[in-house]
Write a structure and sequence with these properties.
The chain is of the alpha+beta class and 420 residues long. It contains 18 helices and 9 strands. The strands form 3 sheets. Strands 3-4-7-8 form a 4-stranded mixed beta sheet. Helix 11 crosses helix 12.
Length: 420
């Protein structure tokens, strides 16, 4: 490949022009495993509610790379030692941090491969690419796995103020049009510092940090945990669940080759990561690397015309955006109440009672407005002292903001009219 072609710039709608900092980063961008991310929506089915939310994981990873380059420059300006090798490695780590995401991102996480998170799969992808790149990602993998001596570099990839969160809040806010999620990522990055190998925020940045944490909370309830988004993603999960059940029973289920591999084979954390795995990680990665959103939608369009009634009904709902109605409650729904809904579903759809579980079910969702244990962020004062943000912020010290909010969702077909 001609190295003269590698010094590219990419025009991003959020940040403007993004520079590609090195040949290694360019080669990662060009790799088929990474290119696949352009076919995976960052926010899953959120576009059912916010039509503009059509952006991809590819765009998000590029944005996180851009912020990482800015952060490296800002920290070096404050005397933090980051070598050229470390800068390239941490940039590669943030670029690849989400490469293990499956179709529709978080919506189907652990649905196709039980018990394996996208972080686990990202690690497998990085190991495979590293072999193809003759070990050039060794340091990036150490940083990603928090095995490198400079711990603050890992915090930039996977911490409370990592480049992942700084990008996705700003990007998701931009594409959904939800202005409450807008954050001053540039200001936060310029206020970052390193003390005793830990990432900290200069005291001048405390208000930007408060806004970041509150914006994150607002985005969760207004976008990520929006009840109609949840309804859409529950429907997607139930559709795949039914397809897998039929496949495991020996039935013929349509699917693209890569999707059928995961429908028919019981692949889980133990079968991949134990001492004597049932599957080689390379085989799993090669199959998973061929999966994206189009596999699911294409298959669902065929299932909507298929023979199994339950899968047919679920798929038609998904394709036509005929979502479940969602009732929210602060308390769990009674089992007798849910049973009555399922009885109606079984009768109305002429299906078995146990099959009604696909159409009427209850789930619990939760979110911290602010979790003092989770957000252990240190503020650096001018006298050199460090204080946890909960000790110096009036807003984030509030008992209300520190409470974990739980909501119970009851999902059922909209045609059912007897819900009180």
């Amino acid at each position: 490949m001609n190295s003269l072609n590698k010094r590219k710039i990419i025009n991003d709608p959020v940040y403007g022009f993004i520079d590609i900092p090195s040949d290694l980063i360019f080669n990662i961008l060009e790799h088929p495993y990474f290119q696949r991310l352009s076919r995976i929506k960052q926010l899953g089915l959120t576009y059912f509610v916010y039509p503009g939310a059509q952006h991809s994981r590819f765009q998000h990873c590029l944005g996180a790379l851009h912020l990482m380059c800015s952060c490296i420059s800002a920290l070096r300006g404050k005397g933090v030692e980051i070598s050229s090798e470390e800068a390239q490695a941490v940039s590669a780590a943030i670029l690849l941090h989400d490469i293990g995401h499956g179709p529709f991102s978080h919506a189907l996480e652990k649905s196709l491969i039980e018990g394996i998170s996208h972080e686990d799969l990202s690690g497998l992808f990085m190991e495979e690419i590293n072999q193809q790149f003759s070990g050039k990602l060794d340091l990036a993998i150490q940083i990603f796995n928090n095995k490198y001596k400079k711990k603050f570099l890992h915090q930039l990839v996977a911490g409370q103020l990592d480049m992942d969160r700084l990008d996705y809040l700003r990007r998701d806010s931009f594409f959904t049009g939800v202005s409450e999620g807008t954050i001053g990522s540039d200001r936060i990055i310029k206020m970052m510092n390193v003390v005793d190998d830990q990432l900290v925020i200069d005291v001048k940045g405390i208000y930007s940090l408060e806004k970041f944490l509150i914006a994150r909370r607002l985005m969760y309830w207004q976008v990520y945990l929006h009840k109609t988004v949840q309804s859409a993603e529950f429907l997607l999960v139930k559709t795949l669940q039914r397809a897998r059940e039929l496949a495991r029973q020996g039935g013929e289920v349509y699917g693209t080759p890569s999707l059928k591999f995961f429908l028919y084979n019981n692949i889980n954390y133990f079968s991949v990561f134990n001492e004597n795995p049932d599957w080689e990680s390379k085989e799993i990665i090669e199959k998973f690397a061929m999966l994206d959103d189009s596999d699911i939608i294409t298959s669902a369009k065929v299932w909507a015309e298929g023979g199994d009634k339950v899968l047919q009904l679920l798929s038609r709902r998904l394709i036509n955006r005929d979502l479940f109605k969602v009732e929210l409650s602060d308390n769990p729904f009674s089992s007798s109440f849910l049973a009555s809904v399922k009885e109606w579903v079984a009768s109305a759809y002429n299906i078995e009672k146990e099959q009604a579980d696909y159409f009427a079910f209850s789930e619990m969702i939760s979110n911290y407005a602010f979790d003092p244990d989770d957000h252990n962020m240190q503020i650096l004062f001018k006298d050199g002292s460090l204080h946890n943000i909960t000790q110096v912020s009036d807003i984030l010290n509030s008992r209300v903001l520190s409470m974990k909010v739980k909501k119970y969702c009851l999902c059922y077909p909209k045609k059912y009219k007897n819900i009180n």
